[in-house]
Specification:
The protein is mainly α. The chain is built from three helices and no strands. It is 84% helix and 0% strand. It comes from Aegilops tauschii subsp. strangulata (Goatgrass).
Length: 69
């Protein structure tokens, strides 16, 4: 994940070229959109996970307050 954050789109495209051993320049626009969509999904998933963790902590705090109160 850090590799993606530290890489430019050109770096990623070159790595894909090397990996698949084909020139992906003609598909550059489509690849850029796919990468942006996947990064957005990952970001939204991380936000959802953080929200779930925060909700779970609130529930634990309420439960502890009821038990000790």
């Amino acid at each position: 994940w850090n590799l993606i954050l530290q890489s430019t789109f050109s770096d990623i495209l070159k790595k894909l070229d090397d990996h698949y051993k084909i020139d992906l320049t003609a598909r550059k626009g489509a690849i850029k959109i796919m990468i942006q969509e996947e990064l957005t999904k990952l970001s939204e998933q991380e936000d959802d996970d953080q929200d779930k963790n925060a909700d779970a902590k609130k529930k634990q705090s309420r439960h502890r307050a009821k038990v000790t109160g």
